[in-house]
């Protein structure tokens, strides 16, 4: 799972060629003269298109300009692809998540002689979780189908405790499937995977905690689908069942409880209830203080710093950027385990959004750079970073140099080739 997103439309889609040409040229750090020379067209052609004085251009001219900018003609015209339809092949992952022994033709179980030992499979599942946390999306999408298949083989062939351990790994793999599918914008597949994680968790060797973790992922997929009331209800009811007692120092239970409250707060805020969201975050913060340190496991990412970061991000989403930036100055350092890079990167994106709202554009750009450096692959999939970067480009009236251009490319404002021809 990831820190919750920030609303914002893709402003390039549906805009005019004039706006897009100017935006893409600035993002490439090119002057009108340089673009005209690179494209082999007249300077007057570029200037008149950007000024809106030339609303129709020959296909050959558009091809030359798109080629010089390193983008497709569709991008130049404002016909943007789906924001997450990137370069990762997900057919194998879809098949692995949808596999079902009760449906003819969807059984993926192979010869039992290929079954991995449970410790080996557990190690592979942990490596997959590390890939998820580190934002290694391609590696995760490649690894997950086989882990799902092997886990299903184990629960078919094993007995008693080993079978229960197999169900725990199977539930974990389905949760990771939900997480990566959600990151890629495949929200229906994410829900299917999370729902299967909940089912398999009930048969695991630690069913209570595994089910609560799986419901956390399920609530997140509901938030992504815009089903905020359902998401809040699932998260709060699951949190009530797993809530630690006053003297309970189990970090896993506290972490799952806190993460469920984070999801519930996000759903409440998205549904217009700021006060209820604030109450839920306060309860999560109290649990974080009692946990005496930050933890980052497959069960949960939680602790005092994580809760503080979530509070700042909440203020940005609630429309109070000044308070968000003030709170950011007093967030505690991590204690115990370092907070994963993708979580820290998500926080930087929220700080960039806050700075943008206050028209502190230089600070916003610096935060985008920090987020990219922390989790370069992960941030490419975040619409918040794209929205902030595009707004910065729209605001600029002059070229901003190579760093600005590099960030525009990394956040997907420029698509296609990495450099102009």
From TrEMBL:
Keywords, ordered alphabetically: DNA-binding
SUPFAM superfamilies linked to this entry: lambda repressor-like DNA-binding domains (SSF47413)
Boundaries of every HTH cro/C1-type domain copy: 21-76
Keyword DNA-binding among UniProt keywords: yes
A Pfam family this chain is assigned to: HTH_3
PANTHER family: HTH-TYPE TRANSCRIPTIONAL REGULATOR, METHYLPHOSPHONATE SYNTHASE
Protein name per Swiss-Prot or TrEMBL: Helix-turn-helix domain-containing protein
